[in-house]
Write a structure and sequence with these properties.
With 42 residues, this protein is mainly alpha-helical. Helices cover 45% and strands 0% of the residues.
Amino acid sequence: MRNRLAPNEHLLASVAREGLGIMAGLFWDLGETATLPPERNN
């Protein structure tokens, strides 16, 4: 017997693809060093 309160384990491929693309873009942007602000000299 399956638990009715379990999370839905079905996911549309298009939703998964879009989420992966968003997360890949986020990590790509975080990894770029060209977009870092200039260092402050005290």
